[in-house]
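Q: Is it fine to ask for two folds in a single conversation?
A: Yes, each is treated on its own. Send the first.
Q: Here.
A: Result:
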Amino acid sequence: KGHGALAIAHTLHTIKRGHLYTADPIDQGVAGLLERSGFTGSATYIHDTYERMLSDRFKLNSIDLAFIDASGHAADGTMRMRHLLMTMDRLRMGGVVVMADIGAGDWPFVNVIRTLSQLYLPGMRGVAIYQKRTDLT
């Protein structure tokens, strides 16, 4: 519903550095929320899927930080894995992916995501963190 995007946009606006791109195929009013808060210079809302946003806007090695909070309700159950793989291809060396809601359920690829992560915090909903390594070993 845009609360996370608003918090990140506020931070970027405050430090006057970086830009947030956020996408959702279901319009939750995020663009209006960002505009009313005065953060449109620090954030861009895209009314589309995450996959299309990545394909259209981001080249290889162009992302510093990605927060993925994909729906677990995709018909084939593989949405989060697709999002992670696409994002990993576009991460800068040292870039980080944070995935929310990795602790609940036994959906396709959840164990693969947990294994790929350098840090997995199970908790009730769970968070997994992946960093693109800066070394070649």
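Q: Second one now.
A: Result:
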Amino acid sequence: MEQLKSRIEAVLFTTAKALSAKEIGEILEADTETVEEALLELIMDYSSRDGALEIDDENGYILQV
């Protein structure tokens, strides 16, 4: 799961628009359910850090300051 989280993070970092879990899964050739689980873990990881970055999931998933 950690490798998938890193790959998702890279996709979000390089993409300037919000993506759905399905779109991320298509890019990474991973199933949507696994991508959604990894995204939830990433959201929790970012919320527990004392940093400026976060993953917003209001209109898709996007990495933002």
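Q: Anything structural to flag on that second result?
A: Two points. The first helix runs from residue 2 to 14. The chain is about 60% helix and 10% strand.
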